[in-house]
Amino acid sequence: MFLHYFTLQQANELLPVVREELAHLQYLNRECEMKHRQRRMLNNVDQIVHGDYQHVFELEAAHDFLHIQICSYVKQLKKQHIYIKDIEKGVVEFPGKLGDEYVLLCWKQGEEFVTHYHRLDETFYHRKRIFRTEE
């Protein structure tokens, strides 16, 4: 179980901050993937053999630093009980309670508000629309 549960209103009030954090995470993730692709390309053209170690080191260091930043952002959000489930798709979950049932309130980037949930033993792809709440 979770230590904190959000009401639907509380989750929706957090969306401006979540949108901003998610956009930054997506930027970092794209940069990290680009560094990884560049590093792989160096392997493919065998430039390391030709003494381009400094460039390889810089790419690896940049990739590792970006990865650490991403993990740090996700960890900070998790400490606030906000769970990033998919950075690129923009899937975010908030522990909540609807009626007597503990659930995960779901939001996907592009949606105006949190309007869906799924049970704790289900995934985002099983989400259902929230029709009414008793807040």
Concise account of the structure shown:
It comes from Alteribacillus persepolensis. The chain has 135 residues and is of the alpha+beta class. The chain has helices at 8-44, 53-79; strands spanning 83-86, 91-98, 101-108, 116-119, 128-129.
Topology of helices and strands:
Layout: H1 8-44, H2 53-79, E1 83-86, E2 91-98, E3 101-108, E4 116-119, E5 128-129
Helix pairs in contact: 1-2
Protein name: DUF2203 family protein
InterPro entries: DUF2203 (IPR018699)
Organism: Alteribacillus persepolensis
Main attributes?
135 residues; alpha+beta; 2 helices
- Chain-averaged pLDDT: 91
Number of domains: 1
For the secondary structure, the number of strands is 5
Distance between the termini: 20 Å
Order of helices and strands: HHEEEEE
How is the main sheet built?
Answer: 5 strands, antiparallel
What Rg is obtained from the alpha carbons, in whole angstroms?
Answer: 19 Å
Strand content: 15-25%
Q: In what order do the strands lie side by side in the largest sheet? A: 1-2-3-4-5
Protein name: DUF2203 family protein
Pfam families: DUF2203
Organism: Alteribacillus persepolensis
InterPro entries: DUF2203
Report on the architecture of this protein.
This protein has 135 residues and is of the alpha+beta class. It has one domain (8-129). Helices cover 47% and strands 19% of the residues. The protein contains two helices and five strands. Strands 1-2-3-4-5 form a five-stranded antiparallel beta sheet. The chain is elongated. The two termini are 20 Å apart.
